[in-house]
């Protein structure tokens, strides 16, 4: 019913033929449904095709600079210098901020060693810090003279005051004993006052073990997120019919979560979009292959085939970015240029 309603609301007058010819200067989606489309291209080429302030939520799970091969030898995730990796991140992050609507949400999943740099940069772009969510990822191994790493960082920022915050959509069940089925905690005698929808979700997620089953995983040998993680972010920050962007599609977890919840979705994957198609065939057999013309309204050159120009975004500015101190990560923001020089 949600899909039918979305199609009924499409204003055909806003779907304009851009005049693009099917040459190498443009690209159609590699895979699409009635609600979304993914392109087999670099994310900066997709960003270059999207209008300012047209996306409701961005969920990004970029490569972590660990030297992994995500599908072929030319797409290894490895920068020789930390500053080079961060500079690459700043480039696509600035584009993500640009395409977000006022009040839109930006979720960024990464290792803590990178996340604190990326958070400072987002504050420098005047994004509003909401949460550093610790996503439990046990099952790793101790690394030398360090503590046992057991969580990844999920940054949650908004472009100003959040437009949507659906707290009740992501409540978690009240924990019960798996044997006797009784509540594990007595909540200080106030059990009757708990919300019947469940407990408030905290900023520490313990039910997010790595995806190891074929139902959740598309690429063996590569860590992938269960759809639960992007699903929570999408349901928290959007309503049905809103647009979700994932610039690093991977195995398609974000797209699956968006499709199931009736959100429009768009994204890119540089290696292999066939894995995303296979995920949909396996987990969402009712989804129909189609071209969601409603998404043409977010393109700079709208057209009924969702064809995008392959011209990449111009390089981001190298000048320093500073902001006035405010609440957030200890209220401190370093200039972008100072941060880069300190890492060299």
Keywords, please?
disordered N terminus, single chain, disordered C terminus, nine-stranded mixed sheet, two-stranded antiparallel sheet, 11 strands, Rossmann fold, alpha/beta, 23% helix, 344 residues
Brief characterization of the structure:
With 344 residues, the protein is α/β, with parallel strands linked by helices. It is built from 8 helices and 11 strands.
Characterization of this structure:
The protein has 8 helices and 11 strands. The chain is of the alpha/beta class. It has one domain (2-314): Vaccinia Virus protein VP39 (Rossmann fold), CATH 3.40.50.150. The longest helix is centred in the N-terminal third of the chain and has 18 residues, at 82-99. The model is unreliable at 1-18 and 317-344 (pLDDT under 50).
Return residue spans where pLDDT drops below 50 for at least 5 consecutive residues.
1-18, 317-344
The main sheet orders its strands as 2-3-10-9-4-5-7-6-8
Counted up, domains total 1
Write down the CATH class.
Alpha Beta
CATH fold field value: Rossmann fold
Count of separate DSSP helical elements = 8
Rounded mean pLDDT score: 80
CATH architecture: 3-Layer(aba) Sandwich
Query: What structural category characterises the helix and strand content?
Result: alpha/beta
List the helices and strands and how they pair.
Blueprint: H1 2-8, E1 26-27, E2 31-32, E3 36-39, H2 43-47, E4 55-60, H3 82-99, E5 100-110, H4 112-124, E6 128-136, E7 151-158, E8 204-205, H5 228-237, E9 243-246, H6 253-260, E10 264-268, H7 274-283, E11 308-309, H8 336-343
Helix pairs in contact: 3-4, 5-6
């Amino acid at each position: 019913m949600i899909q039918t309603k979305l199609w009924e609301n499409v204003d055909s007058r806003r779907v304009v033929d851009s005049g693009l010819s099917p040459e190498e200067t443009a690209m159609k989606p590699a895979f699409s449904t009635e609600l979304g489309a993914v392109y087999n291209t670099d994310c900066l080429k997709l960003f270059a095709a999207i209008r300012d302030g047209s996306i409701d939520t961005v969920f990004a799970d970029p490569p972590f600079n660990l030297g992994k091969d995500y599908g072929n030898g030319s797409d290894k995730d490895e920068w020789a210098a930390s500053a080079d990796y961060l500079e690459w991140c700043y480039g696509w992050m600035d584009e993500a901020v640009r395409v977000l609507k006022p009040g839109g949400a930006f979720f960024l999943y990464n290792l803590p060693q990178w996340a604190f740099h990326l958070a400072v940069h987002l504050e420098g772009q005047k994004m509003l810090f909401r949460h550093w969510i610790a996503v439990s990822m046990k099952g790793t191994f101790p690394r030398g003279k360090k503590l046992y790493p057991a969580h990844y960082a999920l940054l949650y920022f908004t472009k100003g005051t959040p437009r949507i915050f659906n707290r009740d959509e992501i409540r978690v069940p009240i924990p019960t004993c798996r044997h006797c089925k009784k509540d594990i905690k007595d909540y200080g005698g106030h059990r009757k006052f708990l919300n019947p929808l469940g407990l408030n979700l905290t900023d520490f997620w313990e039910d997010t073990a790595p995806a190891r089953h074929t139902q959740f995983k598309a690429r063996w040998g590569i860590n992938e997120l269960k759809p639960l993680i992007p699903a929570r972010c999408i349901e928290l920050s959007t309503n049905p019919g809103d647009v979700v962007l994932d610039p690093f599609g991977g195995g398609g977890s974000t797209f699956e979560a968006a499709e199931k919840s009736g959100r429009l979705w768009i994204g890119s994957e540089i290696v292999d979009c066939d894995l995303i198609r296979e995920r949909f065939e396996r987990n969402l057999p009712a989804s129909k292959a189609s071209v969601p013309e409603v998404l043409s309204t977010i393109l700079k050159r709208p057209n009924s085939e969702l064809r995008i120009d392959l011209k990449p975004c111009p390089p981001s500015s190298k000048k320093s970015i500073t902001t006035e101190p405010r609440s957030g990560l200890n209220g401190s923001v370093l200039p972008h240029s100072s941060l880069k020089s300190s890492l060299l």
